[in-house]
Specification:
The complex is a heterodimer of chains A (about 260) and B (about 325). Chain A is an all-alpha fold and about 260 residues long. In chain A, about 55% of the residues lie in helices and about 0% in strands. Chain A is flat, with a radius of gyration of 22 Å. Chain B contains 13 helices and eight strands. In chain B, strands 1, 2, 3, 4, 5, 6, 7 and 8 form an eight-stranded antiparallel beta sheet that branches. In chain B, a hairpin with a 3-residue loop joins β2 and β3. In chain B, α6 runs antiparallel to α8, α11 crosses α12 and α12 crosses α13. The longest helix of chain B is centred in the middle third of the chain and has 17 residues. Classes of the chains: A mainly alpha (about 260), B alpha+beta (about 325). At the A-B interface, α1, α2, α3, α5 and α10 of A face α1, β2, β7 and α4 of B.
Chain lengths: ~260, ~325
């Protein structure tokens, strides 16, 4: 690529940096896909909803809904991703490890999403195909950088005047939102935290990322998808989202 | 090679990596001749380059000051359902190449630097005429595989290419005369209000040079435009527009990739940018031609060469 496309040090350096970035992303995604695949196999094997197609049958070694005679699926992956995305109330469990990836979802949610994918397929699936569906449905699990913050009440609780009794319930809800938001902020990388307050301000994103508008648009879309996944579909998701933005704004260097 | 963001050992590795002979300088000269004799043709893949941005472009059609081109990528491997992938056996890259056909658009000729490959014309023909309507693909070309991840690596490559194309389109061009746009030099704009002494002092230039600026025959730097604006009360935009635009024939010659090695060398010699090197030399050639009486369009390549020769060997020196 360098020989064909670069003509001087500046362009060669830029291309090399870009190559290295893509290589690192690729490595991280492959590692993440391996972990996801193992987790899915664990859940499928431990749940009566699914079964492995016996050797000797068509599609032997694949997975299918138990009790069906489904033959190997061969269709558009996007259809399965759509079906997986339509499953409501998917829950991401609380998580605070600094060394492990974010969990994909709780076990019940994995089962529900896998069942939806198998039903949409109407056939048996390779574990690699199911992994691809989950990777598209839960992009966070393949993210390279996840940095939790400590659970520190001082960073979570809002500064508040003495609370009247009639506002006690609201205050409790606010605290819950704050805790949930802090957990989500902990799953964002430092760079992502800087971007959150500016998600709808493309020039600001370009400035922070040092890139053009298409890359800023790409990163904004990706971060929004990640936040949507982490926020889930709880009743207080809007309050949590506002708190996430506030926390990220406060953690800005000049914020 | 040096770059603060890339360790030197990676540059060394890149240098040692084996590349196809066809892409070496020698290989390119064998296939496309001397860069100073470059010819732009449909079906060629060009390296486009401006400042630190570079891209590979498949030429689909030529326009006056632009080419219609589709971006090509070879590394990292990336594709989606809007791409076409060209088999390695059909290119000089020795690996599959992805053509981002839906991103095809006008790219200024001035950013083209060197032809690096020539593809069968059936490929650009097909992209231009039939890529949107299906039909049988040329041999060795396959449609890109759809991606299921909206924010996957291929989407990032697509975004990077889009930004590179935006940056290349912003590369400054020469001011070209158009018949429909009236033009007024600085002297006309300042009629009755000209303070020549103040202008000379502010610009710190000899009077003949100031007169050339007043008549719009000399390009102005951004700083000089600001100085003239502050002294005369005109806006910077008015001052910028007072420079006489160059004849289109000269612009087409000076912006052709044939001249890029010369502008790049001149930029290094004088410590200026490539754009400045091209701009000042073009006005120099224009000034030379203005001294002639003729009925036909000057040979602009010849005038550019004369200006550069005079610059290298000023009159009186031998």
């Amino acid at each position: 690529m360098l020989v064909a496309q670069a003509s001087d040090d500046a362009s060669a350096g830029r291309l090399l940096r870009r190559s290295i970035r893509h290589w690192l992303i690729d490595r991280v995604r492959k590692t993440g896909e391996g972990a996801l695949r193992r987790r899915l196999e664990q859940v499928l094997a431990a749940n009566d909803t699914f079964e492995r197609v016996p050797a000797g049958e068509e599609g032997g070694g694949r997975w299918r809904l138990a009790g069906t005679r489904a033959t190997p699926w061969a269709g558009r992956l996007a259809d399965l991703v759509d079906a997986a995305g339509a499953v409501p109330r998917v829950r991401i469990p609380q998580w605070s490890s600094s060394t492990r990836r974010s969990p994909v979802a709780d076990k019940a949610s994995i089962v529900a999403v896998a069942r939806a994918a198998f039903q949409a397929a109407g056939g048996s699936l390779e574990i690699a195909q199911l992994t691809a569906v989950f990777a598209a449905r839960f992009p966070v699990v393949l993210d390279p950088v996840i940095v939790p913050i400590p659970v520190d009440p001082d960073t979570v609780a809002r500064a508040a005047d003495p609370t009247p009794e009639e506002l006690q319930v609201a205050a409790d809800e606010e605290l819950d939102s704050g805790v949930a938001a802090a957990e989500i902020v902990g799953m964002l990388s430092p760079a992502e935290r800087r971007l959150v307050p500016h998600l709808d301000d493309q020039p600001a994103m370009q400035k922070i990322l040092g890139c053009g508008r298409s890359q800023a648009f790409y990163h904004a879309g990706r971060l929004k998808a990640k936040l949507a996944q982490l926020l889930g579909e709880t009743e207080d998701m809007h309050a949590v989202a506002r708190e996430v933005i506030r926390l990220c704004s406060e953690s800005e260097p000049d914020g | 090679m040096s770059d603060e963001g890339v360790p030197a050992r990676l540059f060394d590795l890149a240098r040692r990596a084996q590349a196809p002979e066809a892409l070496s300088d020698h290989g390119l000269r064998v296939r496309f001749g001397d860069p100073a004799d470059a010819v732009i043709q449909v079906g060629q893949v060009w390296r486009a380059h401006w400042e630190d941005v570079s891209a590979l472009l498949l030429l689909l059609a030529t326009e006056v000051r632009d080419v219609l081109a589709a971006p090509v990528s070879i590394d990292p491997p990336a594709e989606d359902e809007r791409c076409f992938v060209i088999d390695a056996s059909l290119t000089a890259f020795a690996i599959d190449a992805t053509v981002w056909a839906d991103m095809a658009g006008s790219v200024p000729v001035r950013v083209l630097e060197r032809a690096v490959d020539q593809w069968n014309e059936a490929i650009p023909d097909w992209i231009l005429q039939r890529s949107g309507s299906g039909g049988e693909l040329p041999q060795g070309v396959r449609p890109g595989r759809p991606t299921s991840d909206e924010f996957g690596p291929s989407a990032l490559v697509r975004a990077e290419i889009a930004d590179d194309l935006d940056a290349l389109a912003r590369a400054p061009g020469l001011p070209a005369a158009t018949p429909e746009e009236p033009w007024q030099d600085l002297a006309s704009l300042l009629r009755g209000k000209l303070d020549l002494a103040a202008l000379r002092a502010a610009l710190d230039l000899p009077q003949p040079e100031v007169m050339r600026i007043l008549r719009g025959k000399a390009p102005l730097t951004t700083d000089q435009m600001a100085v003239v604006a502050s002294v005369t009360g005109l806006t910077t935009e008015q001052v910028a527009e007072s420079v006489r635009p160059l004849p289109l024939g000269l612009v087409l010659k000076a912006e052709h990739p044939r001249w890029r090695p010369t502008w790049q060398q001149r930029a290094r010699t004088h410590g200026i940018t490539e754009a400045q090197a091209r701009l000042t030399a073009s006005y120099g050639a224009y000034a030379l031609a203005a001294r002639e009486t003729r009925a036909t369009e000057p040979d602009w390549d010849q005038r550019l060469r004369e200006f550069l020769r005079d610059e290298a060997e000023p009159a009186g020196e031998s």
